[in-house]
Each structure stands twice: as C-alpha cells, then as structure tokens.
Amino acid sequence: MTIFGIKPDFPPGDDEMSIAIRDFNWSSTELGAIEDWSDALRSLIALMHGSAQPMFMTWGCDKAWLYNQYCVPTLGHKHPAALGRRTGRCVVRGLD
Hints:
Blueprint: H1 16-23, H2 39-50, E1 56-59, E2 64-67, H3 72-75
Antiparallel strand pairs: 1-2
C-alpha cells in the first residue's frame, strides 16, 4: 500500500535481495505491484529475509520465485533472472 504517495521501504534492508525485490517490476507479473501485496505475502517475505538460512518461496498460480540473499549461491548463474520467474523456468539442480 502506498502511503501519501510514498512507497514503503519493503522489504527493509540494503542487502542485494531486498534491493532487488524493491526494484523489480512486479506489475509485469501475476503478483502485481508490490504496494498491493497482501499482508500474508509481505509477512512471509519478511520472515524469509530475516532468516540466515537459504530460503525461497513461490507465490500465485504462476508460482513466482522469491528468495533471500542466502539462496543466491545455490541459484548460481540463474540469479538474478530467477527472481519473479515462474517455477518451471527456475528449477535448481540438486547439489552434487
């Protein structure tokens, strides 16, 4: 939700993934504008970004990918293109 025309700092933080999520054009996805995200989605993202463990989640019918900074090494060359992508395009091979 936009408050008095000012976009809230969500998710908070200056780490790579917080910035990437804020700067991503979510309006081009099924999730819609970040300002319109549900409290449930915001809560899960806040939980994920507060964790020091690699975490990712999918959301919506297209199962758009969201992940924290600790998941980046696992994604390897698929980062940052995996952000907001449909699950079928982001499948990560198991670690050898």
